[in-house]
Amino acid sequence: MHYKSTRGQVAGIGFIDAILMGLADDGGLLVPEYIPQVSAETLKSWQSLSYVELATEIFSLFVNDEIPRSDLEKLVQDSYGTFRHPEVTPVRKLRDNRYVMELFHGPTFAFKDVALQFLGNLYAYVSRKTGSVIHILGATSGDTGASAIEGVRGKEGIRICILHPHQKVSKVQELQMTTVDDANVLNLAVEGTFDDCQRIIKELFADVDFKHRYHLRAINSINIARILAQTVYYFYAYLQLAKQGLADKLNFSVPTGNFGDIFAGYLAQRMGLPIHKLILATNENNILERFVNEGVYQPGEFRGTYSPSMDIQVASNFERYLFYLYGENTEDAAALMSLVKTEGKLVIPDDKKATVAADFAAHAVENDECLAVISQYYDDYSYLLDPHTACGVAAADQLTGTDEVTVTLSTAHPAKFNEAIALCEIKQSYPEQIEALFSKPQHLKIVKGTNEAVQDELVRFF
Ligand SMILES: N[C@@H](CCOP(=O)(O)O)C(=O)O
């Protein structure tokens, strides 16, 4: 398998180089040169596989022989051996036809661990094998940062710098990142929003001289490894429900801000996974919902919500979807993305709107609705949803037909977002790993939201 850019100037690169490149050197995003197909027979033969075995099968479609099978098996085993649940991403029933897939049993209690435990180990492996310098630069609205840090803290040959928007992540998210005292970790609290953090890192990655001089590597979902690892749990959930005869009309409802997690579902579907509906759930930062329902992609005003990890206006994976929407036409994808920069928006024609409507259904959840859903599911079904998952469940409740089964991706543990849970007058107890964070000293530096300010810190650190 080789990888190519959505903007057409980078092609024919292998898996390891794609991982190391992160953002394509032409400013686009890397995608596989073709989408591997999984037949109905293969899918059936995967039914009895464990999560680790399934992940190994799926990764091997994208890695080829660049990583020997035995090394790949060990990487996968090590990555999911850190999860607290033997099934890694168990599927639980909430009520009739409604399920959640719990993606929060990894070290930092968020779905990001599923891909970032793997990517952290992969970086360490590549660094050992090829002697590559791994200097990670990432941006977070709260979950990716902690998870990426956890994936590489203390690892030899790797340094990591994470930008988060100062005081715009939850208290637990902030503590998870900033109480880490390993010398290879730097936390920058940026005065601005997550979009500022993401813009800065994307511009620094797009400065190819700077990127190469400082060996910058990506852990955000611009890195194709993130997307590939996240496709696995769609297959896993499908197979668990298929065994029970519940997968004939199976929907996934996905809370999303950066379009990475739902893009992984889209890719799984294009690989042949029979997904009935992909439901896209946003909070009040609803650019993606407006795109699906109105065909207009236009960043709006930033809104602070109870689900801060989705407080995003500019969704970094959107370009990957545009690329497929326009039949893998690199010129169209590049031209449309540049319209967002020059005109502040892009509008798609009616035929494309129809395709988007066939690919996704979407619902934007307001702050009050999010809290109401948390309270309702706690009172009626004794299940405590985190506010991001609550957005997914709200969208599922709006958009699921009576003859359909819907799995909502439960992206984080509620203990990470007690600000919202407390407003619902629910008292939760913290897992001991989270409780322990409150007594540890924090390490972070507050910086201005400019490329120069961040660049200065990076030059000192790397
Ligand atoms: N919601 C994310 C934002 C970054 O997204 P990513 O999927 O590109 O890493 C977060 O919690 O940091």
Give a quick precis of the structure:
By secondary structure, the protein is α/β, with parallel strands linked by helices. The chain is built from 20 helices and 15 strands. Helix 16 crosses helix 17 (387-399).
Task: Tell me what you see in this structure.
This protein is an alpha/beta fold and 462 residues long. It has a domain at 91-109 and 225-423: Rossmann fold (3-Layer(aba) Sandwich). The chain has 20 helices and 15 strands. The strands form 4 sheets. Strands 3-4-14-9-10-13 form a 6-stranded mixed beta sheet, with helices on both faces. A 5-stranded parallel beta sheet has the order 8-5-6-7-15, with helices on both faces. A two-stranded antiparallel ribbon has the order 1-2. The longest helix is centred in the middle third of the chain and has 20 residues, at 224-243. The chain is globular. The two termini are 32 Å apart. It binds the ligand N[C@@H](CCOP(=O)(O)O)C(=O)O. The ligand N[C@@H](CCOP(=O)(O)O)C(=O)O binds at residues 140-145, 220-221, 257-258, 260, 309, 316. Its EC number is 4.2.3.1. Catalyzes the gamma-elimination of phosphate from L-phosphohomoserine and the beta-addition of water to produce L-threonine. Pfam families: PALP (PF00291), THR4_C (PF24857), Thr_synth_N (PF14821). This is Threonine synthase.
